[in-house]
Amino acid sequence: MEIKLDVLITENKTTIHFSNNQGSLEILELPDIQLETAHPAVYFLIKDKTVVAIGRLDCAIADSKLDYNKQIIITPPWDIELDYLEQLFITEATENGIQLTENIQHPTKIPTNSKKTVASYKENVLLVLTKFGYPFNQQEKTKKAKPAKARHKWTKEVSQIEFFINTRDSKATVLWHKRNEMLLKAGATMMPTPPLNKDGSLGFSAKMGQRIREDHKDKVKNFTTTEDILLKSVNEVGLFLYFGGTNSWLELIDADGKTLNEWTVV
């Protein structure tokens, strides 16, 4: 989609004109001034980038007692019915979880022969507003913060527990016997062949696994460990045995079925 605009920015007002006489937008940072327009328009009242009200202006002055700090006034071209445009904006806001004030008057149902034209204009307006930092689809839909990466705490109690691995063609007995050291007991069986990417190449985990195996090749025969091996972390254990590809904290399980993650997660 391509929209040509004529934009004028002053200290307290941004005026955006659509090409071909397709109307205009005004973004005003003057909350103490009453809403006023020379032509019929739809207005948004904004509080901290969130729409709090949507209504109509019919060439008159409107005074709102709501708490807001910006106004957006949308003046459409003559062929866009103001009632219908207001209704579509209200519907859009509601569908995106925006809580509007209760004093909004809903227009009548939009006729089928008008809906396509009005909807197209509404989408153009929303696209422009999004580019200027007022997206409907991000208001009241705050992005969920990514959960913090789990932390695990080593204890003397945990250091005495044997954990067993049986996954991805590998079996092993492991102890987290020191804070920065995992003991992989002799007799562990290893996944023979690393998985490949779709293009047939080795992925990062596979390469890391091969490197760790190379460091301990003197203690491995026919993909079975012949001596106890010391590794630095749970991650290294997974890479060494089965080239990673899964959460190894959940793969180390004690005799009662409790994972190393359950024992140690903070």
Give the biggest beta sheet. Answer: 6 strands, antiparallel
How many discrete structural domains?
2
What integer is the average pLDDT?
A: 86
Widest β-sheet, arrangement of strands: 1-2-3-6-4-5
Q: What class would the helix/strand composition place it in?
A: alpha+beta
**How many β-strand stretches?**
12
Radius of gyration: 32 Å
Helical content, roughly? 25-40%
What is the overall number of helices?
7
Question: What letter string, H or E per element, gives the SSE order?
Answer: EEEEEEHHHEEEHEEEHHH
The low-confidence runs, each spanning 5 or more residues with pLDDT under 50, are 139-144
Distance N terminus to C terminus?
49 Å
Question: Describe it for me?
Answer:
The protein is α+β, with helices and mostly antiparallel strands and 266 residues long. It folds into 2 domains: 5-138, no CATH class; 156-264, no CATH class. Helices cover 26% and strands 23% of the residues. The chain contains 7 helices and 12 strands. Strands 1-2-3-6-4-5 form a 6-stranded antiparallel sheet, with helices on one face. It has a 4-stranded antiparallel sheet with strand order 7-8-9-12. It has a two-stranded antiparallel ribbon with strand order 10-11. Helix 1 (82-95) packs across helix 2 (112-131) and helix 4 (204-215) packs across helix 5 (234-242).
